[in-house]
Amino acid sequence: MAISFPWYLSLYYYLLNGSYPKDADSKVCRKVRYQCGKLRLAEDGRLLEIKSGRELLHEGNALQRVQEIHQEGHQGILNTLDKISRYYLLHEGRDMVEAVVKSCETCQYRARIRFTRSNPMKVVKTPRHPMFFVSTDAIGPLPVTSKGNRYILTAICGLTRWPMACAVAEIDEVTTGEFYFHEIVKNYGVPNYLLSDRGANFISTYVHQFLKQIGCKNIMVTSYRAAANGMVEKLNHSLVSVLAKLARDDKKIDQWDQYLDAALMILRSTKNAGTGYSPSYLLYGYELRTPAVWVSPRIDYVEGEEE
């Protein structure tokens, strides 16, 4: 639960002019001094943590901030709580986050029935650097959009979990080769290994010769064994889930390809349960800032005025 607004005002006025709450005893005064020792007063009146610059939330604005963060990508409880903790100080905020997520109609519409399944996995080589090995797959067929797209080619870095995807009209050897070049090789260099299933587009002579030419080895997993390429299968589920929620919010389910870039940004800035970090942090060394946490523009801004 976020701190009460009266207590927030007590901290605010102590930082402003050093005053304590009326009729406060010595115990309350010590508590005020202790908490204010970690805070500073911003020019716009917000209370910010000195160490990280995170804004302290109170019961008057906490729910709005949680809803804004959640509605940006409709992530689950843990991921929403993690994003909140990056930019805000919310005391005992799990109950509020849990209530927001469980009351979200879009999330409940896309919720899946959980079950436990165990499949033996084969150990692959440990990645030595980003894009050391990349897992690839395809999603579809999906509803055909106005651009004619009905499939998604997907890929994920085995070390950083950085997701890549591209909407295509057909899945064949040409679109697969173009996806490899434009979405992987051109942006991140040539991977040492590409892990894929035995789909006709992945094992075609055209793709084989392309990978041989650039010096990349293609590893094919066992047929009809999705768990053998589980990393990209998990990406497929997460990507489709976020994509469907974003499109449903704007009532444009049949135009899902318009939201593919936004869905990728959400996944790239969300902490991965396997690594404990977001893909953007592991690949670039910093967290991506998303629109929900951008600072609002100044109302009193005058062109040419220096800050």
TrEMBL record:
Pfam families xref list: Integrase_H2C2
Listed SUPFAM superfamilies: Ribonuclease H-like (SSF53098)
Location of the Integrase catalytic domain: 126-287
Gene Ontology molecular function, alphabetical: nucleic acid binding
PROSITE patterns for this protein: INTEGRASE
GO biological process, one term: DNA integration
GO cellular component: nucleus
Coiled-coil stretches noted in the UniProt entry, renumbered to this chain: none
Protein name: Integrase catalytic domain-containing protein
Gene name of the record: PARPA_00714.1 scaffold 1107
